[in-house]
Automatic annotation (TrEMBL):
Family matches, as SUPFAM superfamilies: TNF-like
Domain annotation C1q: ranges: 17-154
Protein name per its UniProtKB record: Cerebellin-1-like
One CC-aspect GO term: extracellular region
Pfam families: C1q
InterPro entries: C1q_dom (IPR001073), Cerebellin_Synaptic_Org (IPR050822), Tumour_necrosis_fac-like_dom (IPR008983)
Signal peptide (residue range): 1-19
Chief subcellular location: secreted
Protein localization: Secreted
Keywords for this protein: Secreted, Signal
Record SMART domains: C1Q
Annotated Gene3D superfamilies: 2.60.120.40
Length: 154
C-alpha cells in the first residue's frame, strides 16, 4: 500500500465507525426518609448524553449492548451508616458502605459490567431511615450517581 492508499483506507475506516457517546451523572436533591428497600432516585441531572438515565424512576437503561462503568458516591450523615446497593435488573451487584464516625467522609465505589440493551441499573437503600447527607445543599453536591459506556460490544 502506498501512502495515498493508506490514508484513503484509514479515512474510510474512520468514516464507517459510528461514534456512540453514552454517559450520565445525576445528583441528589431531596430530603426525606427513604425506607429500607426503596429506590434512591438521583433526581438532578448534570449530564445525560444518550438519554439513558431517567431522573423520575432513577433507572439507567443501557441503550446499546456494551461494557459500562457505573459509580456511586454518597456522604453519610455524621455518626450514621449508609448502605447503597447497585442493581442490574433484579441482580444485586455491589454495595457502597459509608460509616461516618467523625464528620463528612464520603464513600464511593465503581463497577465495570457488561450490559445488554434494555438492562436497567438502579440504586436501592439498604438502611432505613434515610441517612444520606443531602439537605438540599446543592452548593457542595455530596451525592452522585454516574455511568458511561466504555465500548459497544457486538
Ligand atoms: C426501573 O427498573 C426496574 C428494574 O428493572 C423495573 O422494575 C421498573 O419498572 C423500572 N421503572 C421504569 C420507570 O422504567
Amino acid at each position: 500500500m502506498n501512502f495515498i492508499t493508506t490514508v484513503l483506507v484509514l479515512s474510510l475506516r474512520v468514516t464507517n465507525t459510528k461514534s456512540v457517546a453514552v454517559g450520565f451523572s445525576s445528583l441528589l436533591n431531596l430530603e426525606r426518609p427513604i425506607a429500607t428497600g426503596e429506590r434512591i432516585i438521583f433526581d438532578k441531572v448534570l449530564t445525560n448524553v444518550g438519554n439513558g438515565y431517567d431522573p423520575k424512576s432513577g433507572n439507567f437503561t443501557c441503550p446499546i449492548r456494551g461494557l459500562y462503568s457505573f459509580s456511586v458516591g454518597v456522604l453519610p450523615m455524621p455518626n450514621n451508616l449508609v448502605i447503597v446497593d447497585i442493581y442490574q435488573n433484579k441482580n444485586y451487584l455491589i454495595s457502597v458502605h459509608g460509616n461516618d464516625n467523625a464528620v463528612f467522609t464520603s464513600a464511593s465505589r465503581t463497577v465495570v459490567i457488561k450490559c445488554n440493551k434494555g438492562d436497567k441499573i438502579y440504586l436501592v437503600n439498604n438502611r432505613a431511615p434515610y441517612q444520606i447527607y443531602a439537605t438540599l445543599d446543592l452548593t457542595y453536591q455530596h451525592n452522585i450517581f454516574s455511568g458511561f459506556l466504555i465500548s459497544p460490544m457486538l
